Amino acid sequence: MIEIITWDMIENVWKLHLWPTRKSKIETNSAMCYQAGYDMFNMTTKPTFFGYYVDNKLVGVNSGHSCNNNMYRSRGLWVFPEYRKKGIGKQLLLATIEQAKNENTDSIWSYPKRTSWKTYESAGFRVTSEWAPSETSEENAYCIMELK
User: Fold this and answer.
1) Phi, psi (5° rounding) for residue 124?
2) Which residues pair with 145 in a beta bridge?
3) Would you say 52 and 61 are in contact if contact means Cβ atoms under 8 Å apart?
4) Domain that holds residue 88
5) Is residue 49 predicted with pLDDT exceeding 90?
6) How many domains does the chain have?
7) DSSP letter at 15?
8) Residues 6+ apart with CB under 8 A from 12
9) pLDDT of 10-31, one tens digit each?
10) pTM of the full predicted structure?
């Protein structure tokens, strides 16, 4: 079951599991823009944090927030290994896509790790860049889904 969760709940999962070696500060939002650059406007929008629960245990997370150019960013998808391959990641992405639609944005984008790409593809995203190393992964690529 998916619920809206708090920053503290998702931050712990991100710090301990998704980005344990990350050097830059983990924040509620990201200034990163789709395909290039940074825009501090992205840091001013209200994020939504999603948690997936099984038997009252948090087993997966994702977040989203509005960005420049009337886009929405999906960020921080993580499902604990013992709960993977059950559709939880896809359900978290679909909840994030629905939030993007509720906020009347034109598209939703992300910068997933290659290891999670099949989940994004199953939710309807398409890759729009080459796979390349980042601060948090050996391979990330931009992906997008048009909403209008």
Assistant:
1) 110, 5
2) 108
3) yes
4) 2-146
5) yes
6) 1
7) I
8) none
9) 999 999 999 999 999 999 999 9
10) 0.96
